[in-house]
Specification:
The protein has 459 residues and is an alpha/beta fold. It has helices at residues 2-15, 17-26, 69-72, 81-94, 104-116, 129-144, 192-196, 205-214, 236-249, 268-273, 299-302, 338-375, 402-405, 410-422, 441-458; strands spanning 48-52, 55-58, 63-66, 122-126, 148-152, 197-200, 219-224, 227-228, 232-233, 252-256, 279-282, 293-297, 380-383, 388-393, 425-426, 433-434. The N and C termini lie close together (8 Å). This is Aspartate aminotransferase family protein.
Amino acid sequence: MHQTKNEALSEFLRRTPKSKEFSAAAKHVMPGGVTANIKAFDPYPVIMDKGAGAQLYDIDGNQYVDYLLSYGALMLGHGHPAITNAIQSQMEANGTVLFGTPHRLEVEMGRKIMQHYPSMEKVRYTNSGTEATLLAIRMAHAYSGKHKIAKFEGHYHGGYDQVLLSVNPSLDNAGPATEPASVIESKGVDPYHQQHTVVLPFNDLDATAEILRKKKDDIAAVILEPIQSGFIPADQSFMKGLREVTEELGILLIFDEVKTGFRVGLGGAQAVYGTTPDLTTLGKVIGGGFPVGIVGGKQDVLMTSAPTSNSDVFDSSHSKSSQAKDVLFHSGTYNGHPTILAAGLATINVLEQEMDHVVTMTNKLKKGLSELFGKHGISMQTIGLGSIFNVVITDKETIGNHRDFQQANFSMRKELDFLLLNEGIYTKPLNRYSLSTVHGEKEIQDTLAAYEQALSKLT
């Protein structure tokens, strides 16, 4: 197998010399050659040149079936005419890409989102999923008057201090399974947050409830990915119990559906589970490839951010009688960007017609992969719901949380991913798979054929 690994890497290097050269040059411009750490991998990332439909093309001219889809954001694939036309129409109709004032698309998009997410009685726009979770947590603090939050081990909610804890902790440092430690995941994070961000064990209702009961007077909200990392689902009983215990204790429940919104279904994970959170955050898919986020939820919580006549922190005329501190501050020049909302509306309109197709193709690929791995005698699970899943090489029958997932065979999976890159199948090594409306029978068959070649070399 070691020889196979070396051969796969050698072939990767042979196929991507321009990516190697570009990556070296990029290090003179950006730290590590990238402007987002998630885009980096060894020995260097593949540098893409163009995309079309379900395909990506790198600067060496190699073609790939794209399953990264910008980490799930491009649910209509690359260059979909519905999005292109929507953008052009918006610019022609409005004569500008940005007003800096309220405009009709804010209400139109809001009503569309609320149609699919009945838990959202009001909405606010942000510029990313990260900004959305940041705002949701601030709303929870403002509404409750409490200043700690609880998150789950293995869950990611953005790259800011308050939640950049226990996202992917080493099991040596993670503490007991029933009472996980709060582990800092980045340089520069103030240890203050270890005391103010409580870490919970995902899919363990008894242990979670015990921690929440002990700390209920301090915790404003529980935030979670209802499907961890977009592919490890919560148990139905866990979700039901979590909603009950948070309501009992007066703790807000925030669903971070940045990954799962419009991917596991048009109504997100909350529709799958039949659970109504107090707040929901969305991103990725709803931008059609552009940066956007949304916070929605109960009216009384959202109204903490409603401005009053003398609550503008920037209004000097009210400096002597300002009540800014009595209103949750939320602003942003690009919030509700008209071009992005036009692209998002176009995306949702297409998904309303084609979501079933995406799920059908996803299930066909998952079934084919399971059969291939079985044929080659490798224990594997395709874990996930809707249009998103991961290939987890493991002997465990159930993967229910971060600690279960850490027992998977990542070494074999990474080797397989490089073999697949050489066969024209793209996702960042070790990443999950996302499908789009333009992944059809041909893409599925090409992928299964590539897997057959890769697994033959691997075994």
